[in-house]
Specification:
About 30% of the residues lie in helices and about 20% in strands. By secondary structure, it is an alpha+beta fold. A hairpin with a 2-residue loop joins strand 4 and strand 5. It is globular, with a radius of gyration of 13 Å. The termini are close together.
Amino acid sequence: MRITLSYFEGCPNWQVAYERLVQALATTDHEDLEVKLVLVTSEEEAVTLGFVGSPTIHIDGVDPFANETLRPGLSCRLYLTPEGVGGAPSVDQLVSSLTGLS
């Protein structure tokens, strides 16, 4: 399984997303997996990577939180979580995305 977390310089939420992703990996017995951090520096790179805001998480090349309204670009990304709108998915949401991906 390949996991990437893409972000842009100055994003206030990527580190929270990373910490929650590490927690979710431990919860799902995937703590041995590496999370590749990708710094996105241009609009062109955002399009190529499918980066629809910072932070963006891909699991085996798929963004589990994607929807048709998101467009590639260097912007902050918001996630709808059980606690309300936030700058990163919740640990439980990440666990759900990782479940069964062994």
